[in-house]
Specification:
single chain, mainly alpha, two-stranded antiparallel ribbon, 2 strands, globular
Length: about 325
């Protein structure tokens, strides 16, 4: 990972930060939603892209962060910023627990992926049945505009907050990728036995990776609640977020710093374009964006196995010869 991968991300986020000066609220809502998914995808990228531990259940972390911040505000009157920090901490703790149970049992590959999916489903069922989560009716966060409540009078201010979070995680990912921890993650991804033979503490490395991944994804869940001010079990722990973060990483390029952001923006952009196009021709067609997501995943695996970032690298490499 080099500075060549950091600067494009910084420039892209700087351009997106200018959007409030000329874009409509519809466009700003699109950017906020896309970047929240990009933030969650960065969490998946750290575990799946760098450490090679594929997860089908990152909703477990997203939902935990979202519920913790919402419940703390509604039930205990905790400040929203404190709720955000607590949500991230609980997401990281959830990652550590799932990792400890899975990795100590030497689960890997598809077994680990299915276990993460199972955890997310169990949490969804529990959240749907518990009173303190609002049950099936969900939770409605009280509208109280103010910086202290993480609610802003303009959509632009919230977009800047989300951009700041994405930038912070980009820099964190870049720092990890350049350091020893990043080297250990890659070693574990490529060959766990060889990494262990070289002295890498494989279990500790994977536990740190899933805890960091859980914390980052939980931050996206916290921002989701503050943006929409509503939450239920199917949103918090639904498969939609697990699917979107996975496809965003595959499409943009897993194991790269900028790939998840590119993938999330492209995925949501294509989804919205499909809705508009089908709506104009044949009327509203619910789920057309999900069909498109599946098609994009197949195309990415078939023709861009390293994602958009890998394709760009190959193109630049061929032009430089």
């Amino acid at each position: 990972m080099s500075a060549r991968e950091i600067w494009p991300g910084g420039v892209l986020l700087a351009l997106l930060a200018l959007a409030p000066f000329f874009a409509s609220n519809v466009a700003l809502n699109f950017l906020v939603s896309s970047l929240i998914v990009a933030l969650a995808a960065q969490g998946w990228n750290l575990l799946g892209g760098y450490a090679g531990q594929l997860s089908f259940g990152h909703a477990a972390f997203f939902g935990t962060g979202a519920y913790v911040t919402a419940v703390l505000q509604l039930r205990y009157g905790v400040n929203a910023w404190v709720g955000l920090a607590a949500g991230i901490a609980f997401g990281a703790a959830m990652g550590w627990v799932i990792g400890a149970l899975s990795f100590r049992a030497r689960l890997r590959g598809s077994y680990f992926a299915l276990v993460t999916l199972a955890f997310a489903e169990v949490l969804r069922i529990l959240a749907n049945a518990a009173d303190w989560t609002g049950g099936a009716a969900g939770l409605l966060v009280r509208m109280a505009p103010g910086v202290g409540n993480l609610q802003f009078p303009s959509r632009g201010a919230f977009l800047w907050l989300v951009i700041a979070c994405v930038l912070a995680v980009l820099l964190l990912t870049a720092w990890i990728a350049r350091g020893r921890f990043g080297a250990r993650l890659v070693a574990v991804r490529e060959n766990e036995d060889a990494a262990r033979a070289l002295g890498v503490d494989v279990l500790r490395t994977k536990l740190l990776a899933i805890a960091l991944s859980g914390g980052i994804t939980a931050a996206a869940g916290c921002l989701y609640v503050q943006n929409f001010l509503y939450l239920d079990a199917n949103i918090a722990y639904g498969t939609w977020i697990s699917v979107e973060v996975l496809i965003a990483c595959v499409l943009g390029g897993s194991g790269t710093v900028l790939g998840p952001v590119i993938g999330a923006l492209a995925l949501h952009g294509a989804g919205e374009a499909a809705k508009i196009a089908f709506g104009a021709v044949a009327g509203p067609l619910p789920g057309v964006d999900l069909v498109l997501f599946g098609a994009l995943l197949i195309l990415a695996v078939a023709f861009l196995p390293q994602g958009v970032m890998g394709g760009v690298r190959r193109l630049l490499g061929s032009l430089g010869r």
